[in-house]
Amino acid sequence: MTVAEPRHQIRALYTASTVTVYQAYGSEIGLPAARHGRFPAAWQRDRMTWIKPSFLWMMYRCGWGSKDGQETVLAIEITREGFEWALEHACLAHYEHGLHPDCATWKRQLKRSPARVQWDPERDLHLQPLPHRSLQLGLTGEAAQRYADVWTVSITDITPLAHTIHDHVRDGDLTAARRLLPAEHSYPVPEGGLDHLHR
Questions:
Q1: Contact 128, 143 (CB under 8 A)
Q2: Maximum pairwise Cα distance, the chain
Q3: What does the pLDDT look like over 27-44, one tens digit per residue?
Q4: What pTM does this model have?
Q5: Cα–Cα distance between 58 and 52 in angstroms, integer?
Q6: Are 116 and 185 in contact (CB under 8 A)?
Q7: How many CA atoms lie within 13 A of 112 on its CB side?
């Protein structure tokens, strides 16, 4: 008997101590970030920044590194401790009846939370939506500063990888494309660790 996949899940490339998330920037931020392994001064720590553990959702968002201002695709290794801190301190980005007591309570939670979560349809190699939802994690204030200055372990420019996989998809060679995808697996969140982020 086949067990249905959870509708909300975090699938990610991770090790015993780190988890990889993805972002895409223009070259003025992306290239120095990859070169030095940290975000440059031009990266604004006082703005909301969204990180995605799903490679293919990032490809959907940045158009395989072709969208204006998103030409440099970065794989950012951050500590699992930091990632889990952000999840623990996050609030769902929209009000959901049955999860929040009322809209006013949700608004108060959102205002004081240093992180927020959206669940968007995961994508396949053609960037078409899949049934389960993928995590997008927004960081602001304390969380954004910790992300840039404490949690980040390494930053790698994976734009060539994105372009190569996209070339295989366009050529119809999905086997070759799939072979190059990061090995993402269900992330081991403690039981109940996401209960405040979806119904």
A1: no
A2: 53
A3: 999 999 999 999 999 998
A4: 0.94
A5: 7
A6: no
A7: 5
